[in-house]
Amino acid sequence: MNKWIRNLCGGIAALLIWMAIGQSAMVAASEIGVRTAVIVALQGEAKVQPAGSSLQYDAFEGMTLQQGDRLIVGQGGAQLRIKDTGDEVNLGEYSLLDISRLAGGPQGKTTKLTMLSGMAYFAVTDLHGKPDTFQVVNGNHTLDVKGTHFLVVTDPVTGASSLSVVAGAVSTGSSRPASGGSLNQQPPIIIYPAQQIYLGGSEPGGPSVVDPTRLIQNAPPGVIESLLKNAEKIQQENEQTKKSFEEQANTPKQPANPNLAQQLADLNKISQNLSNLVGNLAQEAVKQQKLSSGQVQQLIDEANRSLGGNGKIDLDKVQPLDPTAGVNPELAKMEQLLKEKQEELNRQQLEKQNAHQALIQRILEQQAKLQEENRKAQEEARARAQEQFTNQLPPQDREQFLADKRKLEQEKIQRGGSTPPSPAPAEPTAPSGGTSAPSNPNPNPEPPASFTLNWRYADETSVPLGVQHTLAFGLTLKEGVEPKSDKLKVKVTLSSNVPEAVYAAIGYDFEYDSLPPTELNLEACGTSTAASCGEAWLPSEEDAGYGIGALGDGWPAVISANWGQIGNYTVTAEAFQNEGDTLVSLGKQSFQFKVSEKPTIGFTGGESSVNLAPEEQLTYAFSAKGENIQPSYRLALKATIYGEAPYADVPVTLYHNGAPVASGIVDGNGTAYLTGEAGVLAALLAAGSDLTLAWEPYAAEPGTYEIGLSWVYPPADGLDPYPFSEDKNVQLIVGTL
């Protein structure tokens, strides 16, 4: 009892101490100005990466964010509110926002947000006459805000951005480091309502009038709706801006800000633009079907209830914005050039994307064609095999077999089904990527395996005939599987649909423990030993087994073979563990592939000698075409710089229509093996394509470079590359200055 009382007293004392410390901590936090933001609305998926962490967590409405946190918006959008000021940020899809600083104290509150990608609409409280600061960092530019409504759009291609001000004013300044490491102190440019500016380079151009068509085109519906919900505040603030301009226009003193001077000179045009800005945006939202006409009219009606006099918005009387209002012609010209440059970059990127999509479509079409050819070949092979089988039967047995077959087909028809063809051998299947377990299209009726096989080249479902080839894999137990022992054994079985298949020189290796290569003959499986029928144990049948961790470390198990017969092949791995003196199976996993005809690839174009300008990057343009290429063939371009050349460890890239399709690194011998995504090189070579080879990033020294090119099966697991083409030798001559 005394012990219980002592524990209770101790607990109460600890609670009181914690409360005292906690209260002191909260007071201290309030004094140093800890501020937060909250996610008030969320559409679709979003992630939050807390400050100082590499982990990401699902975002949710009501979630609190602090200084240093990052918000990653996927499809949909998100709305943030700074809790103590009410400032709002409405993010469009695929936006990335860092809360760089949220602080406060006697000198005022500081809000600094970094916009990394996407689009955002900001509704910031009026900061005129307050010590508070609100900044948005975008690329090389810092936007200083004094109570306004504005939008920032970051281009996903170039990373450049544009700023459009709807109400208030935003000051833009470059934060690009100048030579010597100091910041480039360029005078800020103030952007007024109904103006926009392109932030594409190290220095912004000049402001121009907002383009409602492009602004709405780049804005998702959620952002537009949020903007129109603030139509009342925007109109009221713009009315105040017009009055302020009128007062300053009546003051004899010339304003120091050239942009403001331009605004005052075009006061009537500016006033008309401010009055018509929201109406133009609303009309464009309906025109582009971002929002319905009824939805837009309802939002405008709600704004008009509180607006009086000339501030009301009549969507039937909206006038177009005057593109010359308050704009310096020279700066506007610079702005137009920047916009045209941006459009050209976007056009080039779109062409690359279209070319890539066309390439993917060609790959899919070729795969479909090859699958259809394989299906027909398999049907013909089955028909020939069945005919051969029936011809070997005695006449009486052959008649009985054919009669039974006709009876079976008739029964199927009577049951209401058509006569299906004989089941074809399953096509080799595997998921994309080299570290995922392949799916098994013909699972055994046994329970699912308690482990996963990770194939090194899981997308290599076709192997060229006669090429020295390896299949490498690792084995990991599934989550929740409790091993009965700390060691596992693996039985590897090779099977095929090839009649009278003979597998020559099959090697089964595990790390440094290898079995001697064995010739396997499936035809003799009824009378020969198990090994000769395609089975091998890792380790040998007499050994205890490998540690579980060793089996899962990379791809320790390797099967090496030179497949000499065309057909479908299956490698099955069955894992076992010891339970006493008994081996208990953990299940099976299989990988299927086919051996197809060996490809031949030729260089169909390209000069034998090329002159390059002084210090020009080493490049060579050529064309190539292949025959008998399967979509999943592993292919590489072997590119060698002969002689002494300072090109070791230099990247080299192969391009098609300006898009990279393969790459490699030059080794100490001057050779690089260029490989790319599965199926891309195969599709390009099967169709015949123009390609460009470029060593980068160094400019070449003057002189003559001897280059050797050839298409090969890439080297792997200690095996040499296998040639698919004749060598092509080229001279690249770099001139002198």
Distance between the termini: 98 Å
The major sheet is characterized as: 15 strands, mixed
Q: What's the total number of strands? A: 38
| Helix fraction by DSSP (H/I, runs of at least 4) | 25-40%
Keywords:
disordered N terminus; 737 residues; elongated; 15-stranded mixed beta sheet; alpha+beta; 11 helices
Draw up the topology in text.
Layout: H1 2-32, E1 37-49, E2 57-58, E3 64-65, E4 70-82, E5 88-91, E6 96-103, E7 110-123, E8 133-138, E9 141-145, E10 149-154, E11 161-167, E12 170-174, E13 189-191, E14 195-199, E15 208-209, H2 212-218, H3 221-229, H4 231-249, H5 258-265, H6 267-287, H7 293-304, H8 329-392, H9 395-414, E16 451-455, E17 462-464, E18 468-477, E19 487-496, E20 502-510, E21 513-514, E22 518-521, E23 535-538, E24 546-547, H10 548-551, E25 557-562, E26 567-579, E27 582-596, E28 600-605, E29 609-612, E30 617-627, E31 636-641, E32 651-656, E33 659-665, E34 671-674, H11 680-687, E35 689-699, E36 703-713, E37 722-723, E38 728-734
Parallel strand pairs: 7-8, 17-27, 29-38
Antiparallel strand pairs: 1-2, 1-3, 1-4, 4-5, 4-6, 5-7, 6-7, 7-10, 8-9, 9-12, 10-11, 11-14, 12-13, 14-15, 16-18, 18-25, 19-23, 19-24, 19-26, 20-21, 20-22, 20-25, 26-27, 28-30, 30-35, 31-34, 31-36, 32-33, 32-35, 36-37, 36-38
Helix pairs in contact: 2-6, 4-6, 8-11
Short description:
The protein is of the alpha+beta class. The protein contains eleven helices and 38 strands.
